[in-house]
Amino acid sequence: MERTFIYLKPNAVRRGLVGEIIKRFEQRGIKIVALKLFWMTREQAEQLYEIHKGKDFYEELIEFVTGGPVVAMIVEAPRVIDMVRHIIGKTDPLKAGTGTIRGEFALTITKNLIHASDSLESYEREYKIFFNEEEIVNYFLDV
Ligand code: CMP
């Protein structure tokens, strides 16, 4: 079974969209296997976004994601990496399809509400920045 890492950015928390966003994953049948609310440190943000270091949006992005609490989770389902990115929509809210999270609720690229790993390699790297293995819970979904 495939897993992916997701986190809801500070504007999702401050706008009270946590329930709305998680609902979209749950109603699709995606299982949450780890979940927490916390304030991301600069070290964690720099590690997460190391590939963007030096880009013009980098500083603004780091300031933004460390500027308020976030909700991070690990979710599980078949083909969940692509499925979650499909539900979220394209990085630029202008290009995110109608019905996607970013397409419905986001306005700017930096404040695009949510991040999800874009590949298995990214997932393996990203979840370890925020979660210990003991925080991942195994259980069965009910009907
Ligand atoms: P995220 O999925 O968190 O991954 C990198 C983030 O950089 C992206 O979402 C955006 O929030 C942010 N970002 C800001 N400007 C850009 C840009 N021009 N291109 C890509 N990502 C950007």
TrEMBL record:
<feature type="binding site">
    <location>
        <position position="57"/>
    </location>
    <ligand>
        <name>ATP</name>
    </ligand>
</feature>
<dbReference type="InterPro" id="IPR036850">
    <property type="entry name" value="NDK-like_dom_sf"/>
</dbReference>
<dbReference type="GO" id="GO:0004550">
    <property type="term" value="F:nucleoside diphosphate kinase activity"/>
</dbReference>
<keyword id="KW-0963">Cytoplasm</keyword>
<comment type="subunit">
    <text>Homotetramer.</text>
</comment>
<comment type="function">
    <text>Major role in the synthesis of nucleoside triphosphates other than ATP. The ATP gamma phosphate is transferred to the NDP beta phosphate via a ping-pong mechanism, using a phosphorylated active-site intermediate.</text>
</comment>
<keyword id="KW-0808">Transferase</keyword>
<feature type="binding site">
    <location>
        <position position="9"/>
    </location>
    <ligand>
        <name>ATP</name>
    </ligand>
</feature>
<protein>
    <recommendedName>
        <fullName>Nucleoside diphosphate kinase</fullName>
        <ecNumber>2.7.4.6</ecNumber>
    </recommendedName>
</protein>
<dbReference type="GO" id="GO:0006228">
    <property type="term" value="P:UTP biosynthetic process"/>
</dbReference>
<keyword id="KW-0418">Kinase</keyword>
<dbReference type="GO" id="GO:0006241">
    <property type="term" value="P:CTP biosynthetic process"/>
</dbReference>
<feature type="active site" description="Pros-phosphohistidine intermediate">
    <location>
        <position position="115"/>
    </location>
</feature>
<feature type="domain" description="Nucleoside diphosphate kinase-like">
    <location>
        <begin position="1"/>
        <end position="138"/>
    </location>
</feature>
<feature type="binding site">
    <location>
        <position position="102"/>
    </location>
    <ligand>
        <name>ATP</name>
    </ligand>
</feature>
<dbReference type="GO" id="GO:0006183">
    <property type="term" value="P:GTP biosynthetic process"/>
</dbReference>
<keyword id="KW-0546">Nucleotide metabolism</keyword>
<dbReference type="GO" id="GO:0005524">
    <property type="term" value="F:ATP binding"/>
</dbReference>
<keyword id="KW-0460">Magnesium</keyword>
<keyword id="KW-0597">Phosphoprotein</keyword>
<keyword id="KW-0547">Nucleotide-binding</keyword>
<keyword id="KW-0479">Metal-binding</keyword>
<dbReference type="InterPro" id="IPR023005">
    <property type="entry name" value="Nucleoside_diP_kinase_AS"/>
</dbReference>
<dbReference type="InterPro" id="IPR001564">
    <property type="entry name" value="Nucleoside_diP_kinase"/>
</dbReference>
<feature type="binding site">
    <location>
        <position position="91"/>
    </location>
    <ligand>
        <name>ATP</name>
    </ligand>
</feature>
<comment type="similarity">
    <text>Belongs to the NDK family.</text>
</comment>
<feature type="binding site">
    <location>
        <position position="85"/>
    </location>
    <ligand>
        <name>ATP</name>
    </ligand>
</feature>
<dbReference type="GO" id="GO:0046872">
    <property type="term" value="F:metal ion binding"/>
</dbReference>
<keyword id="KW-0067">ATP-binding</keyword>
<dbReference type="InterPro" id="IPR034907">
    <property type="entry name" value="NDK-like_dom"/>
</dbReference>
<dbReference type="GO" id="GO:0005737">
    <property type="term" value="C:cytoplasm"/>
</dbReference>
<dbReference type="Pfam" id="PF00334">
    <property type="entry name" value="NDK"/>
</dbReference>
<feature type="binding site">
    <location>
        <position position="112"/>
    </location>
    <ligand>
        <name>ATP</name>
    </ligand>
</feature>
